[in-house]
Design brief:
heterodimer; A: MetI-like fold; 2 domains; globular; B: alpha/beta; D-Maltodextrin-Binding Protein, domain 2; 10-stranded mixed beta sheet; two-stranded parallel sheet; 10 helices
Chain lengths: 288, 269
Amino acid sequence: MKNKKAFENMIHGIFLMLGLIAVGCVLLITVYLVIAGIPAIREIGLFKFLFGKTWESTSANPSYGILPFILTSIYGTAGAIIIGVPIGFLTAVYLSKIAPQKIKAAVGTAVSLLAGIPSVVYGLVGMLVLVPGIREIFHLADGASLLAAIIVLAIMILPSIIKVSVTALDAVPKEYEDASLALGATPVETYFKVSVPAAKSGIAAAVVLGIGRAIGEAMAVMMVSGNVANMPGLFQSVRFLTTAVASEMSYSSGLQRQALFSIALVLFLFIMLINATLNFFLKGKKGD
Amino acid sequence: MKKIAIFFVLAVMTASIFAGCGQKSDSGTVSTDGSTSMEKVIGALGEAFEQEYDSVTFTYNPTGSGTGIQAVSEGRCDIGLSSRNLKDEEKEQGLSETVLAYDGIAVIVNPENDVSDLSVEDIAKIYKGEITNWKDVGGKDGEIVPIGREAGSGTRDGFESITKTEDACKYHQELTSTGDVITTVGGNPNAIGYASLASVSDSVKAVSVNGVTPSEETVKDGSYVVQRPFVLVTKEDKKLSGTAQKFFDYVTSSDASDIISKAGVVPAK
């Protein structure tokens, strides 16, 4: 009996420790980013850092302004959402409400597969197909641009938007829809006026999840966006917050390296903000 | 307990940042300091050296050629690494140079491009944005797309210092690896890029510069100008420690040539 209790306690202790690993990692990363990110901001000046328009980290007179990166990340994510959300949302409505079971299963598998493709593969296909394609279609000298990044990101966020939205739409009680149909509404009216509003917090969560995925993506974007620290333009070669850190990290030193940590800190704050929004929506869902 | 764990991991991380600073040259270790461009070749050599001899430690502190030269003259490291020849005043301070290898940088264009020879001046003008159309340098009509490497890259540093375009390049793409540069130039008929000579493949065309085709021979004899030496800097009046001497002999021996070539540069021996 005593043995059993000791065993139980031991297992509890092990579980507690395993649980603390995740918490510890989050704390560690947060603390480390703040400690590593603050000195450069202090040296450069917060205003100059966040709103400076030129980034020349290795020139004789270095300047560290990350406004181009911030704007590029925002524009890129917004573009991906503008393209990805309508496609993802309508696909979800179709899959959840209209599609026959067989098609639903087939498309569902395809979507899961899309989610499982590593981002470097997206980047590679983008680099070899999309970038030359954009160059040809728009008669540009070079296709590596914000537009290419937006298209790649839009495709990358589709799976999360579709999956989460389908789950939310599937969870709408059938009685709501039956009632609507019984009152004489057509099926399409029912889907858009009853099912979708009932699932709106879930769909909002899907969009936020998509934003989070898009803003944090580095590899695929790095391969198609050209990586020059220009102010963003649709056909300009641009650099995102993520790629700014990733592309210069390997050879950086001194203040340059510290500034990269500061960029990571800014990115981290963005992601925290998005997570907080996500939590807000998910909590709203429970209250329904 | 958690706090202790966090503290410990933080301490390790902090220590790893400062690792490589201020090693003393006691027996059994060889410390090098200098050019970031030489990271790949000196890292490969150091690794091979550590494998060859047991119980030796090799350290490399990537600070930059100037700092490396200063470090060796102040005795803070055994061997300084420089990716340029020593200046006369540095030689007067009692430093001597031994060329380890030559770093040849090929200027590459798409195979469809008619241009097969460029002068260094033209290359510099193209990268500075003063020449923007291929027809100005004897090619077909088409906007030139200059492709380069990310800030801090050794190849970029080498290219810009040879063509004297430091901080003046107007890149259209800044890619993070030689492979990416070659793929991109191979896929865009209007692109021009630069890459370490050893990694140039058939998917791109290396142009001749000032009429000289890039090859191991032309890099070695100095007729191909887009190149720079990788130099080991030592003090003339101070004898190297046993291990450092062993390392010096090892990297300048013909055995090391293979390792040097594999790191993408042309061995001096």
